[in-house]
Design a protein that fits this description.
alpha/beta; Rossmann fold; 5-stranded parallel beta sheet; two-stranded antiparallel ribbon; 15% strand
C-alpha cells in the first residue's frame, strides 16, 4: 500500500530501462534492474580483491611488489551497470535512501567478524561541498544491521587531495600519501576493523587508510567496497 501511494503521488521511471518504478526502496531504479546487481564471482587477487581477466594468477603484481597492511579486501561487484548507477545516484544526486539497500547487499554477501565499522573519510572541504559522505552512510547502516560499533570520527582526511580519475597507479599512491590521520586512538586500538568505501580502483586509498590505522594500533583491518572499477 505504501509503495502504491508513493507511485501515485511521485511516479518515477527507471533511469536504466525507463520502465515505471514500483518499489520505493530501490527507486529510482526499478526492481528488475536492481536484481541485476550481483556479486562478482570471477578471478581476483587474494590480497586486494582486484579482478583478474584470467585465473592464471592468485595475487596481483601490486601486492607482490608492495604487500598491503590490510588483512583482506573485497568488492561486492564490478563498477558497471545498475550497481554503478546506484552508487552515482547516491554519491552525486543526493539520493541518500539508496545507502540502505546498498548496505544490505554487502551484508548479505558475508562479512568478516569485526569489532567496529568505519568509513573512508572525506576532507572537510569536500564534505562541505557534498554535504554528506556516501561511504559513511553505507558504513552506518552496515554497522546497524550487524549490531557492530560505528566509528565515523576516528579516521580523518587531513589533506585535500586532487581527484584520482585519470591518474596512474603510481600517481594515485603519491596523491594519497600522508592524506589521512587518526584521532581518538582508543576507539580502534587492538580492535578488528571493517573499513568501508564505495569504489576501489587501484586500492591506493584503502591501502593508505589501512596503514594509518595499523600504525595507530588497530588489530586486523578488513576492507569492503561496493564496487571495483577498472583504471581509467
Amino acid at each position: 500500500m505504501f509503495n502504491t501511494l508513493l507511485n501515485i503521488l511521485f511516479p518515477e521511471s527507471c533511469p536504466l530501462c525507463s520502465n515505471p518504478v514500483s518499489v520505493h526502496k530501490t527507486a529510482p531504479l526499478c526492481e528488475s534492474c536492481w536484481t541485476t546487481i550481483v556479486p562478482y564471482e570471477g578471478p581476483a587477487c587474494r590480497r586486494c580483491g582486484r579482478p583478474f581477466t584470467s585465473d592464471a594468477a592468485s595475487i596481483c603484481f601490486g601486492c607482490l611488489q608492495d604487500e598491503p597492511l590490510f588483512a583482506s579486501a573485497r568488492s561486492f561487484g564490478l563498477y558497471s551497470g545498475a550497481l554503478r548507477k546506484a552508487i552515482n545516484l547516491l554519491k552525486y544526486h543526493n539520493i541518500k535512501r539508496l545507502a540502505v539497500p546498498l548496505a544490505e547487499i554487502i551484508r548479505a554477501d558475508g562479512l568478516p567478524q569485526v569489532d567496529a565499522v568505519l568509513p573512508v573519510p572525506l576532507h572537510i572541504r569536500r564534505l562541505r561541498q557534498r554535504e554528506f559522505n556516501q561511504s559513511a552512510l553505507i558504513a552506518k547502516y552496515l554497522a546497524k544491521g550487524t549490531e557492530t560499533a560505528f566509528v565515523p570520527d576516528c579516521l580523518i582526511k587531513i589533506r585535500d587531495t586532487k581527484p584520482q580519475v585519470g591518474l596512474s597507479s603510481v600517481e594515485r599512491r603519491k596523491n594519497m600519501k600522508n592524506a589521512f590521520g587518526i584521532r581518538k586512538k582508543e576507539k580502534i586500538q587492538g580492535k578488528r576493523l571493517l573499513l568501508v568505501d564505495d569504489v576501489s580502483t587501484t586500492g591506493a586509498t584503502v591501502r593508505e587508510c589501512a596503514g594509518v590505522l595499523k600504525r595507530a594500533g588497530a588489530g586486523d583491518v578488513h576492507v569492503f567496497t561496493l564496487a571495483h572499477g577498472m583504471q581509467d
